[in-house]
Amino acid sequence: MNKLALVRIALGSIRRNAGRSLLTILGVVIGVGSVVVMVAIGQGARAEIAARVASLGTNLVVVTPGALNRSGVSAGAGSTDTLTLDDVEVIEREVYGAMAVSPVVASGTLAVAGNANWRTAIQGVNDDWFNIRSWSVSSGRTFDANEVRAARKVCLLGVTVAEALFGADDPVGREVRLRGIPVEVIGLLARKGPTAEGNDQDDIAILPYTTVRQRMAGRQYIAQILLRANSEDDVSDVMVDTAQILRETHRLGARGEADFTIRDQRQIAEASRGTTDVMTTLLSAVASVSLVVGGIGIMNIMLVSVTERTREIGIRRAVGARRSDVLAQFLVEAVVLSGLGGVLGAIGGAAMASAVGALTGWSTPVTASSLSIAMGFSGFIGVFFGWYPARRAAALDPIDALRHA
Hints:
Elements: H1 3-16, H2 18-54, E1 60-65, E2 67-70, E3 73-77, H3 85-94, E4 98-113, E5 116-125, H4 129-132, E6 137-140, H5 145-149, E7 154-157, H6 159-166, E8 175-178, E9 181-189, E10 204-208, H7 209-217, E11 224-229, H8 235-249, E12 260-264, H9 265-308, H10 310-318, H11 323-360, H12 368-394, H13 398-403
Parallel strand pairs: 5-10, 7-9
Antiparallel strand pairs: 1-11, 1-12, 2-3, 4-5, 4-8, 4-11, 6-9, 7-10, 8-9
Helix pairs in contact: 1-11, 2-9, 2-11, 2-12, 3-8, 9-11, 9-12, 11-12
């Protein structure tokens, strides 16, 4: 019996029991659709994280203070003050792979403009910071090196702060009070959106670090040192050179425990992607359970079909059909059922992925590889769970089958 004839017989059997067949493949439809959606969401999340990490800056290297230890208990990275402006100056002079370096003096305060107020984060940086973070302005300008040296009372506002204080009005040229000090707004930062961790990057006010240290924070130590490597290939060298210089300036020796932490974008991205990958794998595994359930449903309905068609099997054997023909007939029926479920599930999954993308604003691509995997798995389910009923049908004795009422 040729393959086309087997497929025609399988489709005819499915049409005769259309309602039962539809319910049988429902589990496969749900399983394939769920897998397609979960993979699309996972890929969209990875792309979103990559975009968020890229928004931090190009070829970014971040140096933070080390951990405070008390009685053998570590308070975590950044819990102590170990970075100074002297470190920044040495790094600027001696790390040749870095095209820009900026200290970051961080604080928090209540920003007040007229009758409006908003609690926000302030960061004191130098004029290289905007290049390091690849952060442009949508209105106004950035401050320059002269304004940093003179500790000018100027600032740039993030979109979140600007909207909270001035609504839809352009804040450039207006005055805002930070820590009770009047500061001129000279620029509005372009919108960045949240980080991979969900923090609002636009809820910020940027000032010269000299202004923050002298007039607001009063701290001699700094929260971060940001570096931008000349190229992606230079990032590793910049990290190694920076670590070596800091060990020397902090007099840590060759084996002393580092009182600083150095990270780059790759580490930040990998940490963020790790959670996404685990969740995608977990959700895809849960969705795959539906495929197994659908396979069990196919096996059950094929066993019922064998019982109902016992006499038909006997007649086929009596007119010359071999056991292999009967085995192939029922196996093809099982594969056709799971294949139909796979096609419907892939169509439904693609539509659902598009809907999720429209609702979230993410890119949720349905790739050929994800469709191929889902369809291939559904075909495997058909073969795996259809094999036993097909073997049982092929093993029937023709005489006993003909006697079956």
